[in-house]
Automatic annotation (TrEMBL):
Catalytic activity: 2 a phenolic donor + H2O2 = 2 a phenolic radical donor + 2 H2O
Disulfide bond entries: C93-C172, C126-C131, C178-C393, C257-C289
Residues engaged in binding Ca(2+) 2: D306, T309
Pfam family, one: peroxidase
Residue numbers binding substrate: P220
Signal peptide range: none
Compartments where found: Secreted
Gene source species: Cannabis sativa
GO-annotated biological processes: hydrogen peroxide catabolic process; response to oxidative stress
The protein's name in its UniProt record: Peroxidase
Length: 397
């Protein structure tokens, strides 16, 4: 018995040593790797784009390898000029970020649509008037809800935000804003679905209004061409590189047939498939998305479609794990982008170059995606004394 147990302990010891050495090796490898690679030599701008990162140390290591690359402290000046604070709730609700993470982790295990839903929510919130949780407001007499405006039809996950918020209210009532909940939850769900982890500032406050008309006007559509797309993203301060990296959000979730069916059957009213789509992909997608439904609801007017999204067929974009992002760019390079806008990334030289760069270099992509998400999360935030802290995210307090 005793010998048996000693052998067993030795095996365990060897195993731990092996794991430790593997980890150390990986760690060293990554540190040696070009952490801040040169831009693709055909990219347009070469000036300030590739400065090393200066971001604060993360509160917890979800992706230690990614984080080890950039644990330098935020520059003092950056910090002072920033409207938000790092770890804003450290005194008022120290468990806030941990609670968000725990709930998101739990939800992620039971519902695979959590990450895509939260990513879409944060994009729709931040892109419209800023990250102020305006997208979460229900319609009422005073609120012309963004939920009602056309692009919101694909939005889900409001219930996820409510669940997280109610947990926070139990711990520290009236302290954590819905805008912060959304940003933190999106950040954690990206990491859980194989994307990079990135630190976010907190201290946002919630809007007292929604902006449904603005939502209709400024949100990009799946039918936008590249010039319109770049114009839309530039209006929110995103350059070509950032625009291309944000599109990696399309590497998870389900894309409904109604958003791309015209490309399979009647592109640009030609009765032909979209010539920019890989001809081998067309029959494959046709088996998922039948023509019949499109006859009764022309694709050029998506708003006349059947809104019952639960029954609406779609394509699962399950490029998760280590392939988050890079696999998506590979698909585009092969003409296998699902949406017209996805494939349009190849229609301009600058964006096409970034697609190539990200397909080839996962590390470059992860860094840029993290930076762009951080930028998105900080768009036009409300801070005290403006805005408010809602008790229920769907209602003005
Ligand atoms: C980029 O650099 C590589 C290696 O230096 C070279 O082979 C390639 O032709 C360059 N591409 C362009 C577009 O300049
Ligand atoms: C890129 O860098 C080179 C050398 O530093 C410089 O001469 C050139 O003007 C830069 N190009 C752009 C677009 O900034
Ligand atoms: C892109 O779309 C816009 C709006 O639909 C249109 O005005 C523009 O001509 C299009 N550009 C190209 C290059 O097709
Ligand atoms: C759509 O068809 C029209 C007329 O045939 C043509 O002028 C236009 O360039 C086409 N647009 C696209 C995006 O192919
Ligand atoms: C489900 C839903 O909210 N649908 C609305 C989406 O937006 C359109 C147009 O703004 C409305 O007509 C729908 O009722």
């Amino acid at each position: 018995m005793a010998i048996c147990s000693r052998i067993w302990n030795f095996v365990i010891f060897l195993l731990s040593l092996y794991i430790y050495l593997e980890f150390a090796k990986q760690h060293k490898l990554v540190m040696k790797e070009k952490l801040f690679p040169e831009p693709p030599n055909n990219s347009r701008d070469n000036s300030s784009e590739f400065r090393p990162l200066k971001i604060p140390p993360p509160p917890f290591p979800i992706r230690p390898i990614f984080l080890s690359a950039k644990s330098q402290l935020l520059e003092e000046t950056d910090h002072l000029s920033h409207p938000l604070d790092y770890d804003f709730y450290r005194h008022s609700c120290p468990k806030a970020e941990r609670i968000v993470r725990t709930v998101v982790q739990h939800l992620h295990r039971v519902r695979p649509d959590v990450a895509p839903a939260l990513l879409r929510l944060i994009f729709h919130d931040c892109f419209v008037q800023g990250c102020d949780a305006s997208v979460l407001l229900d319609p009422s007499d005073e609120i012309d809800s963004e939920k009602e405006s056309l692009p919101n039809l694909t939005l889900r996950g409001f219930d996820l935000i409510d669940i997280i918020k109610s947990k926070l209210e139990e711990e520290c009532p009236g302290i954590v804003s819905c805008a912060d909940v959304l940003v933190l939850a999106a950040r954690d769900s990206v990491a859980l679905s194989g994307g990079p982890f990135y630190p976010v500032y907190t201290g946002r406050r919630d809007s007292v209004a929604a902006y449904s008309n603005l939502a209709r006007d400024v949100l990009p559509s799946p039918h936008d061409n590249i010039s319109l797309l770049l114009h839309t993203f530039a209006s929110r301060g995103f350059d070509e590189k950032e625009t291309v990296s944000l599109f990696a959000a399309h590497s998870i979730g389900v894309i409904r047939c109604k958003f791309f069916k015209d490309r399979l059957y009647d592109f640009n009213r030609s009765q032909e498939p979209d010539p920019s789509m890989d001809p081998e992909l067309v029959p494959l997608l046709r088996t998922k998305c039948h023509k019949r439904r499109s006859v009764s609801s022309p694709e050029s007017q998506p708003c006349s479609c059947d809104f019952s999204t639960e029954e609406e067929p779609g394509i699962l974009m399950n490029h998760e794990g280590s392939a988050f992002g890079t696999q998506y760019y590979h698909s585009i390079l092969q003409g296998r982008g699902i949406l017209y806008t996805d494939q349009q990334l190849m229609a301009a030289e600058a964006t096409g170059n970034w697609v190539r760069a990200y397909a080839a270099d996962a590390f470059l992509f992860r860094r840029d995606f993290a930076l762009t998400m951080m930028k998105l999360s900080d768009l036009r935030v409300l801070t005290a004394p403006t805005g408010q802290i809602r008790f229920s995210c769907s209602k003005v307090a």
